[in-house]
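This part of the workshop introduces the protein records we will be handling. A record pairs a protein's sequence with a compact description of its fold. Comparing a sequence with its tokens is the quickest way to learn the format. The record below serves as our worked example for the rest of this section:
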Amino acid sequence: MSVLSALPFLKPVHLRSPRSSPGGQRRHTLPASEFRCLSPEDAISVFEIEREAFISVSGDCPLHLDEIRHFLNLCPELSLGWFEEGRLVAFIIGSLWDQERLSQAALTLHKPQGSAVHIHVLAVHRTVRQQGKGSILMWRYLQYLRCLPFARRALLMCEDFLVPFYQKCGFEALGPCQVTVGDLAFVEMQHPVRGHAFMRRNSGC
């Protein structure tokens, strides 16, 4: 059974059913939304969104195109994309980590025996920002992680101005991160992943 078919919160959501106008003509309907794990074939679309989102702010991307392909080949099940009418509008890419805190090596490594999901990047296409899509996608991603028996917590690093956003998503700050990128410093944040047995019983996991 595929991840998409097993998890109800990853199944396509049709936002509105077709309606007819008073003249009998069918109105334009809102696009259907679909949440699914990403594949290496999605790498270019992912990178285009990420590049636009991050280069203007920090001058660099969390993941470059070869690194995106690297993680989507190694651990596609730790990614999640939001598609509207088949077009990627937001995504998360993660990998597994096996230590208590993130280190510089966590930027490029996937540790298959790890129990911490390192969220490398969350990005939203510029045309659909300020619509709450980042928060919704993160909520769905955390729900999805609860269905993975090996996942115990989610880790990420972010700049100071993003801390309130992730706190609203349920993350807590652990303090300064050991990882630096150029002149940038980061706060490390954590979210516990709980409820494995309950989720398996009640959502087909």
